[in-house]
TrEMBL record:
<dbReference type="InterPro" id="IPR049577">
    <property type="entry name" value="GMPP_N"/>
</dbReference>
<feature type="domain" description="Nucleotidyl transferase">
    <location>
        <begin position="11"/>
        <end position="295"/>
    </location>
</feature>
<feature type="domain" description="Mannose-6-phosphate isomerase type II C-terminal">
    <location>
        <begin position="359"/>
        <end position="473"/>
    </location>
</feature>
<dbReference type="GO" id="GO:0004476">
    <property type="term" value="F:mannose-6-phosphate isomerase activity"/>
</dbReference>
<dbReference type="InterPro" id="IPR014710">
    <property type="entry name" value="RmlC-like_jellyroll"/>
</dbReference>
<feature type="domain" description="MannoseP isomerase/GMP-like beta-helix">
    <location>
        <begin position="306"/>
        <end position="355"/>
    </location>
</feature>
<dbReference type="Pfam" id="PF01050">
    <property type="entry name" value="MannoseP_isomer"/>
</dbReference>
<dbReference type="InterPro" id="IPR029044">
    <property type="entry name" value="Nucleotide-diphossugar_trans"/>
</dbReference>
<keyword id="KW-0548">Nucleotidyltransferase</keyword>
<dbReference type="InterPro" id="IPR054566">
    <property type="entry name" value="ManC/GMP-like_b-helix"/>
</dbReference>
<keyword id="KW-0808">Transferase</keyword>
<dbReference type="InterPro" id="IPR011051">
    <property type="entry name" value="RmlC_Cupin_sf"/>
</dbReference>
<dbReference type="InterPro" id="IPR005835">
    <property type="entry name" value="NTP_transferase_dom"/>
</dbReference>
<dbReference type="InterPro" id="IPR001538">
    <property type="entry name" value="Man6P_isomerase-2_C"/>
</dbReference>
<protein>
    <recommendedName>
        <fullName>mannose-1-phosphate guanylyltransferase</fullName>
        <ecNumber>2.7.7.13</ecNumber>
    </recommendedName>
</protein>
<dbReference type="InterPro" id="IPR051161">
    <property type="entry name" value="Mannose-6P_isomerase_type2"/>
</dbReference>
<keyword id="KW-0342">GTP-binding</keyword>
Length: 478
């Protein structure tokens, strides 16, 4: 549950995006916030919560898609985050309902709690400047303002919304009124904004007290707040998660906090900041913030270049070579390759729509699928058979289950497994195997201290993941 302490800032991390413009790496099943796109060894979610760690901050509230709950919990644990509140959205409803839910939960513990609202998938390079801006914003929030972070523009960017600054607010150094919000402009208008010095990029980060946010939601979006209030009141709690009630939350309008509150409230303010911010919304944006060689190339993974300039080349495993190209993005995963001019980065979303219409599962799913116990990936699929590699974390176990249409053969290649097969309990070591006939009730667990890796061979008339009947599950799945 949210900690009560008005002097500490409560980070509220919105973790529900899909990052569609960063396909083929970012997909619905494993979006960009769960990848180490900017830092080495830490994901974007971990970078985000890392900025809000220390004595000045309470434990975070993280709002995410229910399907990503175990990834969120695991990454927060790996980052050393203690006692987070993980709120599960049963359906996607944009930022305003998510923020309303977080504000209601924080308000239960402390109505005066200062909330720092932010997306899980932005990059910030100057944390010292961020801390200074946050201090100004928190002071204004305690005085009743809802404060936006306005980023100093460095280019005539057409992919961002803008904030036009108004007069300075008396008694609040570094904080200004907001004259208006401006939608994503065309190139000529963006160039004018860059030159006039009055317009800032809208970062989507806000600071306000829970009481102020809820009062403005009550006044400006009462139907939304009523739906979310009911969803929180009827929420259930299991493991580390707060599950918002489905029926109530579904009634909430699909609307951003900008439209629901910020563009209408008289309490809006902005703190201009230069913190090295990027929303990492496209491959071109990622190229801009990535380390580059003397030819302007940014490379990640096994990559070799010859006479290439200003390229972004990323490989998740396969040797990738580029010869004689300029201003090109090349991204290689184990099941898809993207090659395009950097100027067409915004068109990846259109391409993704085309792939979905064609029924390509690569549009939304990776070959590797993550589960609370570990992950699996498909290796070979043929007529009536399929081969997978399965990795089970130390101490984890799969559900007790059976299948109606397939039999399975498990071969341990690393680690130790305990397998339940009907009334039997079998210990398997490396190079040992077990056969699971169709219809048998079975389960596998890793009792060891190292990851368990095995090869699974499935055979049968139907091999879909929905051919499963669960009798018992450690992770509350059905």
């Amino acid at each position: 549950m949210v900690e009560a302490n008005s002097q500490r800032i409560v980070p509220v991390v919105l973790c529900g995006g899909t990052g569609s413009r960063l396909w083929p790496l970012s997909r619905e099943g494993y979006p960009k916030q769960f990848w180490p796109l900017v830092s080495t060894g830490t994901t974007m979610l971990q970078d985000t919560v890392g900025r809000a760690a220390g004595a000045g901050f309470a434990a975070p509230i993280v709002v995410c898609n229910e399907a990503h709950r175990f990834m969120v919990a695991e990454q927060l644990q790996a980052a050393g985050v203690g006692n987070p509140t993980i709120v599960l959205e049963p359906v996607a409803r944009n930022s305003a309902p998510a923020i309303a839910a977080a504000a209601l939960l924080a308000h239960e513990a402390d109505p005066n709690a200062v909330l720092w609202l932010m997306a899980a998938d932005a990059a910030i390079s100057d944390n010292a400047a961020l801390a200074r801006a946050l201090e100004l914003a928190a002071a204004a929030a305690r005085a009743g303002r809802i404060v936006a972070f306005g980023m100093q523009p460095t280019a005539p960017e057409t992919g961002y919304g803008y904030i036009e600054t108004g007069a300075a607010i008396s008694g609040m150094d570094g904080v200004s009124e907001i004259a208006r919000f401006v939608e994503k402009p065309d190139a000529a208008t963006a160039a004018t904004f860059l030159a006039d010095g009055r317009h800032l990029w809208n970062s989507g980060m806000f600071v306000a007290t829970a009481a102020t946010l809820l009062a403005e939601l009550e006044r400006l979006a009462p139907e939304l707040l009523a739906a979310v209030r009911a969803a929180v009141a009827d929420a259930t709690r299991d493991l580390d998660f707060v599950r918002l009630a489905v029926e109530s939350f579904t009634r909430a309008p699909d609307i951003s906090i900008d439209y629901a509150v910020m563009e209408k409230t008289a309490h809006a303010a902005v703190v201009p900041a230069s913190i090295g911010w990027s929303d990492v919304g496209s491959w071109s944006a990622l190229w801009e913030i990535s380390p580059q060689d003397e030819q302007g190339n940014a490379t990640i993974g096994p990559v070799e270049l010859l006479d290439a300039k200003n390229c972004y080349v990323r490989s998740e495993g396969m040797l990738t070579t580029v010869v004689g190209l300029e201003n090109v993005v090349t991204v290689v995963t184990d099941d898809a390759v993207l090659v395009m001019h950097r100027d067409r980065s915004q068109d990846v979303k259109t391409l993704l729509t085309q792939l979905k219409k064609s029924g390509r599962k690569e549009a939304t799913e990776h070959r590797r699928s993550f589960r609370p116990w570990g992950h699996y990936e498909g290796l070979i699929q043929g007529d009536r058979f399929q081969v997978k590699k399965i990795s089970v974390k130390p101490g984890a176990k799969l559900s007790l289950q059976k299948h109606f249409h397939r039999a399975e053969h498990w071969v341990v290649v690393n680690g130790t497994a305990i397998v339940e097969r009907d009334a039997e309990r079998i210990l398997l070591r490396e190079n040992e195997s077990v056969y699971l006939p169709l219809g048998c009730v079975h389960r596998m667990e890793n009792p060891g201290m190292i990851p368990l890796t095995l090869i699974e061979v499935q055979s049968g008339a139907y091999l879909g993941e929905d051919d499963i009947v669960r009798f018992e599950d450690t992770y509350g799945r059905t």
